[in-house]
Amino acid sequence: MNHYLVYGLGGALIFSIGVYGMLARPHLLHKVVAANLMGSGVFLILIGLGNRVQGRPDPVPQAMVLTGIVVTVALTALGLAIVKRYYTVTGLTTLDDDPPETDA
Amino acid sequence: MMLVFDIILMGVIVWIALGSLSPRGVYKSVVMFVVFGLFMALGWVRLGAPDVALAEAAIGAGVTGVILLDAAGHLRQRTPGPILERHVRRGVAPLPLLASVIVFFVLALLVVNLPAEADGLAPLMTAGAEDSGIKNVVTAVLLDFRGYDTLLEIAVLMLATVAVFSLRDAPDILGRRLAGFAGPLLDSFTRIVTPFMLVIAGHLVWIGSSEPGGAFQAGAVLGAAGILLALSGFASPRWAGRRVVRLSLTMGLLVFIAIALYPLFLGGTLLQYPDETRKTLILAMETWLTLSIGASLVSLFIASASPGPDGGVA
Amino acid sequence: MSIAHHLPALLVVTPLAGAALTFVTERRRDPVVAVLTGLTILGLSIGLVIRVLAAGPFRYEIGSWGAPVGIDLVADGASALFVLLSAVVGLAVTVYATDYFRGSRASVCGHGMFWTLWLFMWTSLNALFLTGDIFNVYVCLELVGISAVALVTLNGGSQALRAGARYLFSSMLAAMTYLLGVAIVYSATGSLDMGILRSTLVSDPAAATGLSLMVAALLLKTALVPAHFWLPSAHGSAPSPVSAALSALVVKGSYFAILRLMISVAPPGFLPGVDIVLGVLGATAIIWGSLQALAQTRIKQLVAYSTVAQIGYLFIVFPLARAGTDVFLLALGGALFHAITHALAKSGFFLAAGSLASRFGYERIDEMAGAARSAPVLVMTLALAGVTMMGLPPSGGFAAKWMLVSAALAAGQWWWALVLVTGGLLAAAYMFRLLGVLLRDSPAALNPPSGAIRTEWVPLSLAAGAALLVLASPLVTELVNTSVLVLGQGVTP
Amino acid sequence: MIAWLPVLVPAGAGIATLLLGEQRSRPRNVVNLGAAVASSAIVLLMARAAYTGGAEAASRIAIVPGFTLGVSGDLLGLLFSAVATVLWGVTLVYAIGYMEHARDRARFFGFFAWCIAAANGVALAEDPLSLFIFYEILTLTTYPLVVHSGTPEALAAGRKYLYYALGGGAALLVGMAWLAIIAGSTPFAPGGALDAVSGRTTELRVIFGLMVAGFGVKAAIMPLHGWLPGAMVAPAPVSSLLHAVAVVKAGVFGIVRLVNELYGPALSTSLGVATPLAVAAAVTIVVASVIALRQDDLKKRLAYSTVAQLSYITLGTALCTPLAAAGAVAHLAHHAVMKITMFFTAGSLAETLHVKKVSEISGVARRMPVTMASFAVAAFALAGIPPLAGFASKWLLGAGASEGGSVWALLVYVSSGALAIGYMFPILMASIRPGEFPEAAGPESDRRMMWPIVVVAALTIAFGVTAGLPGSPAHWALTAIAPSFGGWTP
To answer: How many CB atoms lie within 10 A of CB B278?
Structure first.
């Protein structure tokens, strides 16, 4: 059980927690957090499995994860902006109930 | 010995991840998520990925944490607690649990069965990095070998900023003065920390080609400094007229495009830096990128930050 | 190195530069910059088509590092075809938008950010059609996703925000699943380039699972039933030029990625059973989408569900790959033909519906009684686009349906042919229901408010293009053949 | 290349009409009439060339892999095309008068021209796939004309028309695709084009069934005829030209091509598919004629009479004997002229005197003598009274039936002739009975409506009298059908 397996399995676990959060939690902020968890899970798997190399770990997964982090922050920022705007317009924090018809 | 540490660290990370989805309170789960980001940074250090650790700490935990906190504050602002609680179902939803267990089982099976030794593209990359003169292989991959990914990634960041701009309620938020906390504690903290952050950002850019660092990490630190200044109301964005902010946001992308197209005139392909000027070109590009990434992260925070009832950012 | 060799790179960088410029220049000059960029892209894409037809498919090595180390752009028949398609539809939408976003609506709708967001989407589509690297596809999908969500929530209404939120969360889920697939495929095979994957992939369960995850994520982005829940509200509540681009191009982008993965990357039999599942889902999408479209009362919802149905046609090609190469070539040609004609017809339809809504305030179908008299050109566009979606003769849609039906019959899998024919009849049902209302004799205003010429003639030219595509078919068939041959064996470096 | 003109000229006229817009009626009429005259001239010239052996060569354009759209100038196709184009010109004059103060005339004349273009396409199609394409285009271009008035009944009739037409189209699509798969491209060839695959009997039977279902909708073979009576709600020019000449004849023409030049008479009889078709046609003739007896609405009665007369052609073709096949093709032209006269009269009666029912028709002859005289000529012709057109084609059909030894077919023809007298003559009797219509002070009806009626009535007489001479439709039909029966000479 060398250490790349620990992080690989940990990543898998965090990804599944993220999937659970995305599907189970109705609150939109929880969904954003869950999406970030899924991202971190995938990154852990990527770099974890990138460590199966002799010598210095594989740089390509690291580059991919760096790009992934920036993309995830972009997605999160847009998601939060929409959630806040939706809240200001309708006062709702979930997608379950239909909003009043207020086309601005 | 280190294995035990790894297992404990991963156990803590997983436990915090679960905590960050606890149905009790959104505010609590956001704070837990920020802690999760910090521990993840620790994990990256253990996995021999310092660049990623820096980025995770600055962007993953830092910027994401700030905008999440701001959103949580905004959502708690207008309506009292009950709206929040009504939607928080107690207990565990069966179907999503089943889905996540299946996903975990499949992934675990895959991870375990993959061969223990696999060097992927590492040897090719390290060999390539030697003759390109950039010692930090990750920066070499990011800006040189797979520079096209980074070009599109910068486009994603700028696109997100433009998207958040298009969503804000006030017509022209950029000129708005964010009345921050005038408290003495934040003032003194900002006065001391900001100069250091700017120096660190410059250092990160400079050593990016040889040591862990580079445009993203430096940009993230710069962004954090900007958000700190905005929060404490020191340098309110009024000094940034509409045009200056937009220019600073797009200069990174425009310079990147210019440098990418430059080799075309010399008979090379896109992003094929000529050998002799490779380092200087990459450095020039990295500085502008840092400026733009910093500006984007600050704008993401300011554009979406909503003025609290008392004017301050909740 | 001749300029023609750099076309793929220029096709991505031009809209990117255009987007950056529109963000910097003042708002008044944005439409001009956008139209100029559109024209340049059209010229470049025509150049690419000519180059691919003349010199065959080619790879463009970015930074001339070569496949394993660097990223390669692949310009073959299919990518050239789709780049040209997005150039034509993109230019039409841009010209239409210069009128749609004029005056007051410009500032209200997203504070004038439409042009920058639109050119970013155009960049991502061109990048997605041309890329040959599976991680790069991820970054392109994000670009498409974010720009699409931002454009959907442009008018800031509660419906648009809700649709945008649902669209964003489903694309987040898709993005993370896709990245997970890339992680597993990379960890299992050690390479990210499609050409290399094609030559190295042998029956390896890990890589197969990774690839299936990637395809599943792309299904969510293409809104194939049952993953279509986000599409109707998103396409329905977006401004009409946006919904035209979404229905015509964005869904085709992720479909193109599936095509690359299922045909260029996965060797035959590598993903056992996945092609049958895709076929069955496609068939359900055709029937289910059409039935839903029949039940709609608002014109944009009707068209959105019609998109859900028409997407199903594109997935019938996968199970037919089992029946030997010449049947598969015919089916693939049919699928590409359908993708093109549907894009032209659907964008024409949305723009025409948008003009009707903005000029007469029509939203619900029964409000539009007698529109044929007051807006003959727009109703003619709706009719022409409807004919294409039904797959009836004077349209490219018929040629596509003909190729798919004959491929299905030749492959002996006649049940697909049955589904295709029923789909056509159902499409006829909901289209003629709409046309019946439009042709109704009602005392509509005899001198209707007149809109700008371009809001009438741009949609008509798109729909007419879809109808007359049959005549341009030798070119399209040639392009399809070059792409099909290449898709079949994967591009040799 | 000239073979494309009969399709392109009306199509161009249609586009020009729509572009000209609603107000400019004078240029619109000029464009349409010019196109009608031009295309009729072209078709007749091509026919003369085909007559003297120099038939126009086929010209094709490739559409999709394995699918070409081609037209050729063979005699059989040119007959139907000539009928459609010449009668289009006459109907245009009539329609200009009839639609004097109607709305949406630009849309009407535009789609009217496109219908003729599609009908010409069906006529001149060189292979089953091209015929199928123009056949479906005809469905689409006819729909706006059926729902032209926009009233709820018109929309309901249009919807019903679509259910039948698109349903038939779907069956035809599957049949055509299947045939293309097993037999590749099979251009029409006199005497049949499927000898290469004649072994696969079951598949060919199923394909034949599908194709007859597809063509049967427009050929109004029962039970596929339901849409025709409903479509009578369309304006008179539409029901006269389209629902008596162009659209329904396209269906029957499809069956003529199918039996004579795709499967070929020999293969059709050996496969045993000809007899069920003949039986269906016979049943349709009798039942439709009986229903026609009871129809009080004039246009509905004419509609059911059309259903019966169309099945004359189907029955003649299905008998697979040279004389019967020739008679069927001749009847295609003769019936067109006869029925168009009647529909013109019905339209004129409705427009000028607002008479729609047979019961209201008493005493009309005194008020509109010329119109009713022409109607009488057509009625006698339909009943098969020599020397008019109806008699010529009926004689050929009868001779063909007896030549093929199917006496029951002869019986059907004779009995339906009697039934025709049954539902036509009461109208004539009622019209000459003294009624409440006074003498016409000025001209009996709009001149532009009256003269076309007289012209087509004259044609009815001309076709009958010149039946034997070359150049007349009957002789034309004989020469066109002969090659399908192994060089049989009339």
So the answer is: 17
Rounded to a whole number of angstroms, the distance from the CA of C121 to the nearest CA of chain B is: 9
Of C406, C435, C440, the CB nearest to D181: C406
Q: How many CB atoms lie within 10 A of CB D226?
A: 14
Among B103, B118, B133, the domain boundary falls at B118
Residue-range definition of the domain harbouring residue B19: 1-118
Q: Which residues contact residue C41 at a Cβ distance below 8 angstroms, ignoring those fewer than 6 apart? A: C11, C14, C15, C87, C90, C91, C122, C126
Q: In the structure encoding, which two tokens stand for residue D241, read together?
A: 């030209």
Chain mean position to CA B243: 24
**Chain B interface, mutation test: which of A5, A47, A80, most B Cβ atoms within 10 Å?**
A80
D490 part of a folded domain: no
Contact B166 C187 (CB under 8 A): no
Q: How many domains does chain B have?
A: 2
pLDDT tens digit at each of 314 positions of chain B: 778 888 899 999 999 999 888 877 788 888 999 999 999 999 999 888 888 998 898 888 888 998 898 888 888 765 444 444 445 555 677 888 898 899 999 999 888 888 877 777 888 888 887 777 777 888 888 888 888 999 999 999 999 988 888 887 554 444 444 545 557 777 788 888 888 888 988 888 888 777 777 788 888 888 888 888 877 766 554 544 567 788 888 899 999 999 988 888 888 788 888 888 888 888 888 899 999 998 888 888 777 665 543 333 33
Position A4: which residue type?
Y
Q: Give the chain A residue nearest B169 (alpha carbons).
A: A85
Contact (CB, 8 A) for C371 and C360: yes
* Helix ranges restricted to H, C411-472: 414-438, 453-468
**Same domain (yes/no): B176, B263:** yes
In 10 A of CB B115, how many CB atoms?
Answer: 9
Query: Alpha-carbon distance B121 to B146, whole Å?
Result: 12
The chain B residue lying nearest A66, using CA atoms, is B52
Q: Which 8-state DSSP code applies to residue A100?
A: P
What is the set of domains in chain A, with CATH numbers? 3-90 (1.10.287.3510)
ipTM value, please give it: 0.85
pTM: 0.88
Q: How many residues does chain A have?
A: 104
Question: With contact defined as beta carbons under 8 Å apart, do D448 and D93 qualify?
Answer: yes
CA angle B3, B6, B7 (to 5 degrees): 90
Cis ω on the peptide bond leading into residue B307 (within 30° of 0)? no
Q: Please name which of C19, C7, C59, C48 lies closest in space to residue B264, comparing C-alpha atoms.
A: C7
Calpha distance B166→A77 (Å, rounded): 13
Nearest-neighbour CA in chain B from C433: distance (Å)? 37
